[in-house]
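lol forgot to send this yesterday, sorry. struct tokens for the thing we talked abt
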């Protein structure tokens, strides 16, 4: 199984910007590495044999709120294929390297089978250059004219059989890239507040101010909020000052890579000055309901 250090070395060899997230240190983590590749922010989790639904829930929330592309690296995925994990892209390390090197990965596996991504603009350009009508291409492929129109209107996924016929007609330039224009299924984010906890108070306040809000389970950030282009990440004080400082510094790594603002939430007001000396933007529990996050 590939390790976090091995993935970090892969990124280093390509001189890519990245941060390893080392919190929590003794439990499962939902984020192992945040990498920036060709202006794409990739939230990377190296997944072992243990499949954690809560870890995947964190990654899905990251995608839905628009922090970056969540990637799971897992040995079980076939080479040069990206698996649909529900708003998460699953791949093996060799496929991950291909992506980092700028190579197209056009095979996408879902529960319905393996499909091929088609580049709509390139397809239309090639068809027009060859002087073929929509109907002529449809006849060659054995599909309807409206299907060809749809392929050219936006990037589409087609069966391997249709893709092979398209490549035979127009060349492999018409093949798309799964990561290009990666779209998340943006369902409404349900505000899951079940207790009168500190985190729930923060989430309710933000929700009332028009933010989309999600709660995280296994990383240094406890809450993520988004409104227009503004992104706020909250890290709540841990059991003691030493652990809290480790947590906040790891949270700072996350915010620096995704260009968001970090707010440290202090439970013990006596500790507020300690964190402020470390240049953390802090709010206390008593300030939360009246705090103007805007």
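and heres what i got for the seq, position by position
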């Amino acid at each position: 199984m590939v390790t976090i250090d091995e993935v970090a070395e892969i990124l280093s060899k390509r001189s890519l910007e990245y941060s390893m997230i080392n919190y929590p240190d003794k439990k499962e983590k939902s984020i192992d590495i945040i990498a920036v590749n060709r202006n794409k922010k990739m939230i990377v989790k190296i997944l072992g044999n243990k499949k954690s639904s809560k870890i995947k829930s964190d990654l899905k929330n990251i995608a839905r709120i628009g922090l970056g592309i969540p990637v799971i690296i897992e040995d079980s995925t076939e080479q040069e294929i990206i698996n649909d994990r529900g708003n998460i892209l699953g791949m093996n390390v060799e496929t991950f390297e291909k992506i980092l090197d700028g190579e197209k990965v056009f095979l996408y596996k879902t529960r319905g089978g393996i499909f091929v991504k088609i580049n709509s603009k390139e397809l239309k350009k090639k068809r027009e250059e060859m002087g073929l009508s929509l109907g002529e291409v449809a006849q060659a492929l054995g599909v309807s004219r409206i299907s060809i129109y749809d392929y050219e209107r936006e990037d589409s996924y087609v069966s391997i059989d249709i893709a092979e016929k398209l490549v035979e007609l127009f060349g492999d330039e018409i093949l798309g890239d799964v990561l290009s224009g990666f779209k998340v299924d943006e369902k409404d984010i349900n505000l899951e507040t079940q207790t009168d906890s500190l985190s729930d108070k923060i989430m309710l306040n933000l929700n009332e101010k028009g933010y989309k809000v999600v709660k995280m389970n296994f990383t240094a950030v406890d809450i993520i909020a988004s409104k227009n282009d503004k992104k706020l990440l909250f890290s709540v004080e841990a059991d003691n000052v030493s652990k809290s400082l480790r947590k906040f510094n790891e949270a700072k790594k996350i915010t620096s890579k995704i260009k968001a603002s970090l707010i440290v939430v202090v439970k013990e007001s006596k500790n507020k000055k300690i964190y402020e000396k470390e240049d953390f933007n802090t709010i206390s529990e008593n300030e939360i309901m009246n705090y103007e996050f805007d």
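The chain has a mean pLDDT of 90. anyway ping me if u want another try
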